[in-house]
């Protein structure tokens, strides 16, 4: 939910070479992830990831538990150092303070925690300053502006632990936006939300990128709530990825090559379903059975 500074590699991989899109450094991208490998505890968690994000682009990072989604987001943030490869934001190996906003995986907030919603958003600005600083009128105006922009100002004075799941997500998004970043990363923001609240959050994020030109990278298990908003999808499995437009990536052929196992993609009732072997998965991207390396997710 706070703003982060940023980090900085190469092995050949059969899936990487067969990716739908394997963009290289073009100098004009907001975010450029180039041939990134990450090892943890002797296991290779990310295996040659390549992707770019342009200004104002909405990218979905899709995969099941253990696919490496959280590891990739933390590598972009600079919390995890690549074994090889590089991550640059606007051509820099370390982004300027405030350039990247982050909404972490949802944690259970104590309903009795005496922290108001606006105090949580204010932490997104405190992280950009040296020392404690003075919270003057301009400071609180920025907090108010960020909260109004996501429809959260009406509950700004309520304890954050007593808000609904959808309201808490709006507060966390405001905290990520309050320092006016160029890019925001969201780790499973739709998890545990009912379909109506999930749709509301996706609509809100789509509006933010359209109005403010902010780039968005959002991780999720299920692509269905995101399909209409996404410019590109990164589908991760066992640390490998394919990148491209949704209709290019979510196909029987591409996902079978990614998982190295027969996969069938079906379209029914306006939803996408991914079937592995004889088993159909309700959340269209749950194919944990074929994850070779369990990573953070």
TrEMBL record:
<feature type="domain" description="ABC transporter">
    <location>
        <begin position="31"/>
        <end position="263"/>
    </location>
</feature>
<dbReference type="InterPro" id="IPR017871">
    <property type="entry name" value="ABC_transporter-like_CS"/>
</dbReference>
<dbReference type="InterPro" id="IPR003439">
    <property type="entry name" value="ABC_transporter-like_ATP-bd"/>
</dbReference>
<dbReference type="Pfam" id="PF00005">
    <property type="entry name" value="ABC_tran"/>
</dbReference>
<dbReference type="GO" id="GO:0005524">
    <property type="term" value="F:ATP binding"/>
</dbReference>
<protein>
    <submittedName>
        <fullName>Metal ABC transporter ATP-binding protein</fullName>
    </submittedName>
</protein>
<comment type="similarity">
    <text>Belongs to the ABC transporter superfamily.</text>
</comment>
<dbReference type="InterPro" id="IPR027417">
    <property type="entry name" value="P-loop_NTPase"/>
</dbReference>
<keyword id="KW-0813">Transport</keyword>
<keyword id="KW-0547">Nucleotide-binding</keyword>
<keyword id="KW-0067">ATP-binding</keyword>
<dbReference type="GO" id="GO:0016887">
    <property type="term" value="F:ATP hydrolysis activity"/>
</dbReference>
<dbReference type="InterPro" id="IPR003593">
    <property type="entry name" value="AAA+_ATPase"/>
</dbReference>
<dbReference type="InterPro" id="IPR050153">
    <property type="entry name" value="Metal_Ion_Import_ABC"/>
</dbReference>
<feature type="region of interest" description="Disordered">
    <location>
        <begin position="1"/>
        <end position="32"/>
    </location>
</feature>
């Amino acid at each position: 939910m706070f703003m982060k500074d940023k980090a900085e590699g190469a092995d050949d991989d059969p899936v990487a070479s067969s990716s739908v899109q394997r963009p290289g450094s073009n100098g004009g991208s907001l975010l450029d992830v180039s041939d990134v490998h990450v090892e943890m505890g002797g296991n290779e968690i990310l295996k040659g990831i390549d992707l770019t994000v342009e200004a104002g682009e909405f990218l979905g990072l899709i995969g099941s538990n253990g696919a490496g989604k959280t590891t990739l987001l933390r590598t972009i943030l600079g919390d995890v150092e690549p074994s090889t490869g590089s991550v640059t934001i606007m051509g820099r190996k370390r982004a300027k303070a405030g350039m990247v906003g982050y909404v972490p995986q949802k944690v259970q907030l104590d309903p009795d925690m005496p922290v108001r919603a606006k105090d949580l958003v204010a932490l997104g600005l405190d992280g950009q300053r040296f020392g404690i600083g003075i919270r003057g009128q301009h400071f609180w105006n920025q907090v108010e502006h960020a909260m109004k922009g996501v429809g959260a100002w009406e509950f700004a004075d309520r304890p954050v632990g007593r808000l609904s799941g959808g309201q808490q997500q709006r507060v966390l998004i405001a905290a990520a936006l309050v320092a006016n970043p160029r890019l925001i990363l969201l780790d499973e923001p739709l998890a545990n939300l009912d379909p109506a609240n999930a749709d509301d959050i996706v609509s809100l994020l789509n509006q933010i990128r359209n109005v403010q030109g902010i780039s968005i990278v959002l991780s999720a298990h299920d692509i269905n709530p995101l399909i209409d908003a996404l410019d590109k999808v990164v589908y991760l499995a066992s640390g490998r990825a394919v990148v491209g437009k949704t209709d290019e990536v979510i196909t029987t052929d591409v996902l079978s090559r990614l998982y190295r196992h027969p996969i069938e993609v079906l379209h029914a009732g306006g939803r996408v379903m991914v079937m592995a072997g004889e088993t159909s998965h309700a959340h269209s991207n749950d194919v944990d059975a074929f994850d070779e390396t369990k990573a953070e997710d």
